[in-house]
Amino acid sequence: MKMPLEGIRVLDLSQMLAGPVCTRRMGDMGAEVIKIELPGTGEVTRSLAGGNIKDTCGYYIVLNRNKKSITLNLRDAKARDIVYRLAKISDVMIENFRAKTVDKWGIGYDALKEVNPKIICCSISGYGQEGPYSQRPAYDPIAQAMSGWMSITGIEGQEPCLTGLPLGDMLGGTTALYSILAALIYRDRTGKGGKIDISLTDCLIDWLVYIAQFYFIKGTIPSPIGSGHPTNFHRAFKCKDGKWLQVSAPSTPMWDRLVKVLAKNPGYEGLPTDTRFDTLQKRIDNRPIMFPYLNELFMTKNREEWLTELLEGDVPSAPINNVAEALADPQINFRKMVVEVDQPYWGKYKTTGMPVKMTQIEQERYDPPPRLGEHSEEILGSLLGYSKEEIETFKAEGVI
């Protein structure tokens, strides 16, 4: 059976995270992804610090599986001609340089649609292709700062805090993916390609969801709430053994289940009928009383004891795992979200799996990330029809 995106060819000019995570997901679903990299060095994430396999950083490894690599000096006129030839036989081009950069190089949407009117070009940037900030440099942390995310993340009264992972980049890449898929459906219906403009800051503003809406309605500027929630009961509790767990009881039925479990403990028998906490609004208003009261209770037992009791009572709860615990969890591994890949050059290594499970994918695909320029000759020769002599000339001239 063909994979969902088999037959779709993606010209990937992107780098760092937001673009590569989008194209990796397309590769995971069967698309042919041709990654264009700078000759000699490749894209910057190949050489970042933080954990390497052989000569390549784990940052690049996790974001660039299921792709082919060709090196091109995009400022060279001959390289641009190669891009045009690739664009002519591709469905999608994606890039995440600063706004208008590919237009200056002559390989933006206006240029590529001349050689392929059906091509879909997706640009990802910090602020978008238009607007007063479009030419400002930006990365994920800058977008988190601009969007208000840092102001609501962390512990109340402490310094603004980034999220633990690059949420802006991941959202930008995910938004780009579903936008591209929508554009492909539109093209199937109309025969027309088009241009997609994704802003990391826009994506984070969109994901403010109820936080933004509450502000519009009430005018109150929200602040960080740690492990809690502005309108519901979600809370992390420290246990006797020093370990933490998260408990959620956002609705009245869930609260009733929680207090039924907690009421089995000495001194808390009256919790189910405690009038200080018997409505959602009271539980919000009386947090300064309720949380210290419950903190003392959770310190009387180890985390596993609490988890057993809470899960037996059908109360949503979970250990607050560190990364090692999360990646070793039986549920995560049952879902094949940790996989081992064995390849001749890379050897055996573990990597995160594919989160999309669907009947249209019978066998998940985990080709290793390409070595720099590994597929240059294959793409130039077999796909584009350049001769061996022309390819050797490109090498000598620094085109590839």
Can you describe this structure in just a few lines?
Helix content is 39%, strand content 15%.
Present the secondary structure layout.
Layout: E1 9-12, H1 18-28, E2 32-37, E3 52-53, E4 56-57, H2 58-63, E5 68-71, H3 77-88, E6 92-95, H4 101-104, H5 109-115, E7 120-125, H6 140-147, H7 167-190, E8 194-199, H8 200-206, H9 209-218, E9 234-238, E10 244-248, H10 252-262, H11 280-285, H12 287-298, H13 303-312, E11 317-319, H14 323-328, H15 330-334, E12 338-343, E13 347-352, H16 376-383, H17 388-397
Parallel strand pairs: 1-2, 1-6, 2-5, 6-7, 7-8
Antiparallel strand pairs: 3-4, 9-10, 10-11, 12-13
Structure explained in plain terms:
The protein contains 17 helices and 13 strands. It is of the alpha/beta class and about 400 residues long. It has 2 domains: about 10-205 and about 340-395, Crotonobetainyl-coa:carnitine coa-transferase, domain 1 (Rossmann fold); about 235-320, formyl-coa transferase, domain 3 (2-Layer Sandwich), CATH 3.30.1540.10. The strands form 4 sheets. Strands 5-2-1-6-7-8 form a 6-stranded parallel sheet, sandwiched between helices. A 3-stranded antiparallel sheet has the order 9-10-11, covered by helices on one side. It has a two-stranded antiparallel sheet with strand order 3-4. β3 and β4 (about 55) form a beta hairpin. It is elongated. The relative contact order is 0.13. The model has no long low-confidence stretch (mean pLDDT about 95).
Number of separate strands: 13
SSE string, helices as H and strands as E: EHEEEHEHEHHEHHEHHEEHHHHEHHEEHH
In CATH terms, the superfamily of the largest domain is: Crotonobetainyl-coa:carnitine coa-transferase, domain 1
SS field, number of helical segments: 17
Number of domains: 2
Structural class: alpha/beta
Tell me the overall shape.
Answer: elongated
CA distance, first residue to last residue: 36 Å
Instruction: Give me the side-by-side strand order of the main sheet.
Output: 5-2-1-6-7-8
Residue share in helix: 25-40%
What's the CATH topology name of the largest domain? Rossmann fold
Please tell me the CATH architecture of the largest domain by its name: 3-Layer(aba) Sandwich
β-strand percent reads: 5-15%
CATH class of the largest domain: Alpha Beta
Mean pLDDT: 94
Main sheet specs:
6 strands, parallel
Regions with pLDDT < 50 over 5+ consecutive residues? none
